[in-house]
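2 proteins. here.
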Amino acid sequence: MTTGKTLAVLSAAAAACLAIALVPQSKDHIPVGETAPAFELQGADGKQYALKDLTGKQPVFVLFWKERCPHNGRASALYNNLFAAYAGKVQFLGVVTSTVDGAKKWAESFGLKYPLLSDSTRSAISAFQLKKSICVIEIGTDGKIAAVYPGYGADSLNALNQALAKAAGTSAVQVDLSSAPGGLTWG
């Protein structure tokens, strides 16, 4: 092989490695583009919620909470404000690692504006490969993971606001997110 061809091959290989390195990878959640795992969970409101019944018409936003996450109190107010702005216009559910009775108490204590589902066995959380709390996963009408909004930092919440507006078919609503941390906050 000539020096020119060798350099061309090495350059192409280096470019391919760089491209792979620049693609965002995460071991903290299911990859974007994967089919969303099916789940059926009971809500704090006593209803059964199955993902198969929710997909197809518009995106579904699922907010995953760890019951004893230290950020819950601060973050829940931000998510309540955000989702109240699009109430009745988007599909949004919360999932918490708690029993149904625990989820009822949890929803009441934080004044949640959306259905909260019990995942006491962590089956949905495991299926979505979640390693950290708090995380919103957007599931597209095709049933695939469309986007992931980790934590409750300002950037993630602002991106989520834009996605909710798009799903609602409206302009983004001005929501007070000023108390959100500046950086990514989840754990």
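next one coming up
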Amino acid sequence: MAKTYIAREEIEIPENVSVHLKDNNVIVVKGPKGEIKRDFTYARKITIRLEDNKIIVERYFPSKKEKALVGTIAGHIRNLIKGVTEGFRYKMKIVYSHFPISVKVKGDYVYIENFIGEKYPRKAKIVGNVKINVTGDEIIIEGIDIEEVSQTAANIEHATRIIGKDPRVFLDGIYVYERE
């Protein structure tokens, strides 16, 4: 089997987005919704450069893992560009059968009260610069960084896990039902 000569990904930069590349693979992306900084210094062998309104991620004579890493980094950069132009929104549904769940946002935490009739509220950490809106039985999480938005949604979902009971019977919880 022949060795691959080059692993290369090109990402087009939209006209309303500016990208700055600092040394040691640190990228700063600015757009209409805000600014995100991402550090790719862990991938020392991968080259990231700006050329003719494009970001080029490449590695000459890559191993199998380095070839995969080129695609991963390119995917992260695409998400950064999408985040500063469009943003990300996760919609979650509050599901309960008997005890009505109430959700409140205080500071850096989401408090889930009266979950399966528990006396004390459960809490989930809000990660980064994320806006949370609770209306009725729906929670909307919005932000420009997909990692912060998805981790906040995962924290809320994880806070409502039921341990020690049959998950087919006890379906109460807060679940992601739409990603935009």
